[in-house]
Design a protein that fits this description.
heterodimer; A: alpha+beta; 8 strands; globular; B: alpha+beta; seven-stranded antiparallel β-sheet; 11 helices; 22% helix
């Protein structure tokens, strides 16, 4: 499969794991030595390194999931991700870099449906056994604001 | 006495510091009076870090309550602050949260201000061809935006819109000054990131939450699960003399790690839950002592936080009766080693809008705001640890919350109910 197809398939599966579950599948879209960060366009532009979520391996992503299931307290809610087509910036036999825009709406309880976040994924993929895995994903949210809290990943 | 104060005198507040009427989180006239009596009153509000204004021309557009203010560094190296409102027709003078400029020109009619906030230019002041223009009685000097009083406490810039505000040293008191110095003294902070959290509640519900050492290990189960903060750890509460400011702290205490007290209260304190990457909570001694947690608040809306090696300042800005902006600035220091930087990055997961031990605080205020709808005649009870607003060795107390209300009710000019 070509890079576009591999990445598109992986992203479809990625958002499904968050929006429809099982959420435990979400970390499986990353390599063991992955880097994942959620930040803002303002921080990204200024080169400020911190994130609201910051992980430098897959174990930390698994911990995010066990924390949101076992420890953290919040009002039940779900997301619906809408992704743009990935723009492939570089590609080789073994991997690719891409950017993909996203819009996430949040449904709290049985409603309302609120626009929660928009932005872009800055990604490095590796292709392993016919699948694209994220070696790096920086989630750059357009706004500096987060409404109430962020517990489910983007 | 201002008009707002006179109106508020018609409202009655309970004598006991342990009773808080719910209308104080709900009523629009109270919110409006706060803008005058608290945010324009004789108090110090946090504006920004000195480190964020590194070069002449750097500025920060922020707020005291709803009042927009501009904080600048001029070419003389000094920091200035003034109201961010053109003296002409009231437009914002600058809009970027953080920016750089040689001077400011209002976009509406090109009135110009220098970095100290002096009005230096008025477009077409002399008119054109001797016609139009300002009258001869117009004096630019009389039309500069109001300047703030400023104070710099170990690199934290505070401002006040009231010239009668006490000196910052007297305002904070020695204990609070010492605790700020403990974290920031002699160190040059570096901004690691800035995040804003919109809270669905009145600003005072967030302040109560910050000052509430009782909830920390109960609501935030992540804390207790990993032994980061238990109420049976060595620690305490400092309430400043006036009641206005507070510090809650705890230190490593290996004897108290058994968790028996929590089992007695049927609150989960340990479980089969373990981190796959426990390096998240690997810490270094922040300043060479055993203190791993220090939450410090300065009245009305500032927080300096050390949670392990996660250092941050929080600025609490009301935006409406039931909406609040919480601005987080995550910090490191110039002398941090690479390993220490990595620890700070990992521990940034503990705090902020997605923080393992702070995300609940973004929601709990909204739960209260919704819970008290229809109960404006009822009262919250803050009686843990008695009725006083004094320091305590136990963190099972609501003393610092009572301290906040003690200062607040006086500043607002409510009538205090006669004791029965």
């Amino acid at each position: 499969m070509d890079a576009f197809t591999l990445i598109s398939r992986a992203q479809g599966s990625y958002v499904r794991s968050i929006d429809d579950g099982p959420i435990e599948d979400w970390p499986e879209h990353f390599t063991d030595d992955t880097f994942y960060k959620v930040t803002t366009a303002d921080n990204h532009r200024r080169g400020l390194p911190a994130g609201v979520i910051w992980a430098n391996n897959k174990a930390m992503l698994k911990d995010r999931i066990s924390a949101l299931k076992e420890a953290n307290i919040y009002e039940p809610h779900s997301y619906r991700h809408l992704l743009g087509q990935p723009a492939i910036l570089e590609e080789s036999e073994d991997g690719a870099t891409s950017e993909t825009s996203f819009l996430v709406v949040r449904i709290t309880g049985s409603g309302p449906t609120d626009v929660f976040a928009s932005g872009r994924y800055l990604d490095e993929h590796v292709f392993v056994d016919g699948k694209a895995l994220l070696k790096k994903r920086v989630v750059v949210c357009d706004s500096t604001r987060t409404d109430t809290l962020l517990v489910l990943p983007l | 006495m201002s008009e707002a104060t006179t109106t508020m005198a018609a409202r009655e507040w309970p004598q006991a510091l342990s009773k808080v009427p719910y209308w104080v989180f709900q009523d629009a006239d109270v919110y409006r009076a706060e803008q005058q009596n608290i945010f324009h009153g004789p108090f110090w509000s946090y504006l920004c870090l000195e480190a964020e204004l590194g070069e002449p021309g750097d500025y920060c557009a922020t707020f005291i309550g709803e009042q927009p203010v501009l904080v600048t560094r001029d070419f003389d190296g000094e920091i200035y602050a003034f109201e961010n409102r053109c003296a002409h027709r009231g437009s914002l003078i600058a809009m970027d949260h953080y920016g750089h400029a040689k001077d400011f020109t209002c976009v509406y009619h090109a009135w110009t201000y220098n970095l100290q906030g002096d009005l230096t230019g008025v477009a077409f002041e002399e008119g054109i061809n001797g016609k139009g223009g300002m009258g001869s009685d117009f004096c630019k000097k009389a039309h500069s935006p109001r300047r703030l009083r400023l104070a710099n406490v170990h690199g934290l810039i505070f401002g006040s819109l009231d010239n009668d505000v006490p000196d910052i040293e007297d305002y904070l008191g020695q204990e609070i000054l010492d605790r700020i110095e403990r974290v920031l003294g002699g160190r040059k902070p570096v901004v690691l990131g800035r995040f804003t959290q919109n809270l669905p509640n009145n600003w005072k519900l967030y302040i109560e939450n910050v000052k509430d050492s009782y909830h920390a290990s109960i609501l935030h189960l992540f804390f207790t699960t990993f032994g980061l903060n238990k109420l049976n750890q060595k620690g305490g509460i400092v309430v400043s003399e006036s009641g206005a400011h507070h510090v809650s702290w705890s230190a490593i205490n290996r004897e108290a790690e058994s968790g028996e007290h929590y089992k007695d209260q049927k609150i989960r304190s340990d479980s089969e839950y373990q981190l796959e990457d426990p390096s998240l909570v690997d810490s270094f001694s922040e300043v060479g002592d055993d203190i791993t947690l220090q939450i410090l608040s300065v009245y009305p809306g500032f927080v300096l936080q050390q949670i392990q090696n996660s250092i941050a300042v929080r600025q609490v800005l009301p935006t409406g009766v039931d909406t609040t902006d919480l601005h987080w600035t995550y910090l490191g220091f110039e002398e941090d080693t690479e390993e220490q930087q990595l620890v700070r990055m990992k521990q940034s997961n503990l705090v902020g809008p997605a923080g393992y031990v702070s995300m609940e605080d973004g929601a709990i205020g909204g739960f209260v705001q919704r819970g008290i709808a229809g109960a404006s005649g009822e009262f919250a009870t803050v009686q843990m640890g008695g009725q006083e607003a004094v320091s305590s060795e136990s963190r099972v107390t609501e003393a610092s919350i009572r301290g906040f209300w003690k200062v607040y009710r006086e500043a607002m000019g409510f009538s205090i109910e006669e004791s029965k």
